[in-house]
Design goal:
Mean pLDDT: 87
Order of helices and strands: EHEHEHEEEHHEHHHHEHHEEEHHHHEHHH
Largest sheet: 7 strands, mixed
Structural class: alpha/beta
Radius of gyration: 21 Å
Helix content: 40-55%
Number of strands: 12
Low-confidence stretches: 1-34
Number of helices: 18
Shape: globular
Strand content: 5-15%
Length: 392
């Protein structure tokens, strides 16, 4: 199955899913209507996000008040959440509704972008990179000034994965990962994959991420803080980091110091520089074994499509997958960033889903393990692809 999809198809599919649930919620019977005697307690699991959870909490409180129910939100940090969910599913401890990478959209579109600290760039007298050569030059410039060129939460492999995703896309094009996702013979050993891995090691050896990136964490905002305080000049991260910065470092946003740009073009590469990688959205899914399925669906249908919820996402700096949202964005706070995100996604010829979600859990685990070893210089690009080719 092709994982790199046309963005208009992604948004159309998201809207269709949202509309279908919303319609069932409006009738007098069907999935959106609570049945007599059905449990009214629903447990919702999600990632811990200080900026977005207030939106979820507010919508839960409003729903509980209006419907006499008890929707309970339980949150976890990223890696712990994935482990907890895998263990819980299929057991009596499983949640009724859970944050996932497939289901009903609960966040906006989430491409990965290159964030820029405007103060650090101004002090160095440089501009955001338009090409890969520009990016390499900036690494040298900031390193010479004693500034970490790029913040990286290297203690977690998924943050490093963004570099491989974009480099392979720019060097070889979106089809290279599509071949990997489809399990095509020899896809991992493609020369462009090896080249992308080699560029990563060039970056590391050049000092792009500093010397202690392997001890920096994302869940405790380590990388985001380094970047916001000017100790790092750039940060490659999903657009959700805007919401994180807005909550944790509000002055950084308020004073207009946060810049952003698309990942630069690779000279001579086969990839389209307008293509993006990341998450078309994050989602809520309903546990098929839940004893409160109707209550869960009713909650999602009424909460996620409400003006309160959608406006909350926009105010947090996100772009909901809602038809006509571009008009609303112009009249809201953070219009420069949300407008940038909207245009980036709307004009992208392909939107490749984050690899660790597009691939099976066994492949994803091996991928992240080998990637961390690659960044630390413990495996060569050739050994990396050989290891990955063995995983089924």
């Amino acid at each position: 199955m092709r994982r790199s999809v046309q963005i208009r198809r992604v948004i159309t599919g998201i809207l269709a899913a949202t509309t279908a649930v919303a319609l069932t919620a409006c009738g007098s019977s069907g999935p959106g209507t609570l049945k007599a005697g059905e449990p009214s307690k629903v447990q919702v699991w999600a990632l811990q996000d200080a900026a977005v959870n207030p939106i979820a909490t507010s919508s839960i409180d409003a729903y509980n008040k209006a419907n006499g129910t008890k929707i309970e939100l339980v949150t976890y940090v990223n890696d712990a959440y994935k482990q907890k969910l895998q263990v819980a599913m299929g057991s009596p401890a499983a949640p009724d509704v859970f944050f996932n990478w497939g289901g009903l959209p609960m966040l906006g579109v989430l491409p990965v972008v290159l964030f820029i600290n405007k103060d650090v760039f101004a002090a160095a007298g440089v501009q955001p990179p338009k090409t890969y050569a520009d990016l390499l030059s900036l690494v040298d410039t900031f390193k010479a000034k004693g500034v970490t060129p790029i913040a990286l939460a290297g203690s977690q492999g998924w943050t490093e994965l963004m570099w491989l995703e974009y480099l392979l896309d720019r060097i070889g094009g979106a089809d290279k990962f599509a071949n990997i996702a489809a399990g095509k013979e020899g896809a991992w050993q493609d020369p462009t994959v090896v080249k992308a891995l080699g560029e990563i090691q060039t970056f590391v050896k050049r000092g792009a991420f500093g010397t202690n990136f392997a001890s920096v964490n994302y869940d405790n905002q380590g990388a985001s803080k380094l970047f916001a305080t000017g100790k790092a000049a750039m940060h490659l991260m999903g657009t959700w980091d805007f919401s994180v910065q807005k909550d944790a470092n509000p002055d950084f946003i308020k004073n207009g110091k946060l810049g952003f740009t698309a990942f630069p073009a690779f000279e001579g590469g086969a990839g389209d520089p307008k293509s993006v990688v990341g998450n078309p959205s994050n989602y809520y899914s309903v546990n098929a074994a839940s004893k409160s399925k109707d209550a869960s669906i009713d909650f999602l249908a009424k909460s996620l499509t409400s003006d309160q919820y959608i406006n909350g996402l926009i105010d947090a700096g996100q772009v909901p997958a809602v038809k006509g949202v571009e008009t609303t964005l112009k009249s809201k706070p953070n219009a420069d960033f949300t407008g940038f995100t909207y245009d980036l996604v709307a004009n992208a010829p392909s939107f490749t889903q984050s690899w660790d979600q597009a691939l099976s859990p066994s492949v994803s685990t091996e991928l992240l393990t080998n990637l961390q070893k690659l960044f630390l210089g413990q495996v060569t690009p050739e050994a990396f692809v050989a290891n990955m080719a063995k995983v089924k």
